[in-house]
Amino acid sequence: MRLIRSEWTKLRSVRGTWLLAGSTVPVTAAIGLVGILGTAGEWQTALNDQWDPTAISLKGILVGQLLVAMVGASAITSEYSTGMIVASLSVVPQRGRLLAAKVGAAALLVVPTAIISVAVAFGLGQLAIAQAGVPAASVTDPGVLAALLGAAGYLALVGVLGLALGTITRSSTGTLGVIVVVALLAPAFIPALPGAVGEWLATYWPTSAGQMAYTVIQTGSLAPPEGAAVLGVFAVCATAVSYVLLRLRDA
Length: 251
What we know:
single chain; mainly alpha
């Protein structure tokens, strides 16, 4: 716990980290609202049994996840950029302990940020959906609370992934580039791949699968827990790779 407190002190002293975390809430909510307002007219004439107002209100996570990943990455990239990582490794030569402490410290900021972002995006989104004259969701509706928890869990795992990528690339810019590819570009292009390969990748690509965690109406072949598990395994594997590289490379 002492090591986590030390890492938390370092993380909270980085001004950019708070800017990223503070921006996640309005950005996630705003992107969701833009999507709702832009398509509200279509919903009034074409609702079907796949109508999922919960997932619709959380579309802003597609952009918000980039900020959350950078919050996680800043737990270590800020040290590489200033050279403080040398001192950190001197004080804590057990690199596995250091990485675990950074995960814990990042979670102290990422998890509340995720919960608040999801709550605000859902609340404002449902108000906008109701104003459009179509059925909105309530926390008491079946499956909605689980979807909200799944959304918060999704963002938390992306934060862990961001820390792993930050450890691997040693760069905030490098981390952002990789997370944009993993979370946005690859899911957009993978469905165009032919045959069974494209279908399998579209289903099991980590972020695409993970987004099933915050759906109430299942539209894909993965149930919400299964999708969350795929992303969780990917985040654990990325963290394992980052640990190996942290051990093998010089500061």
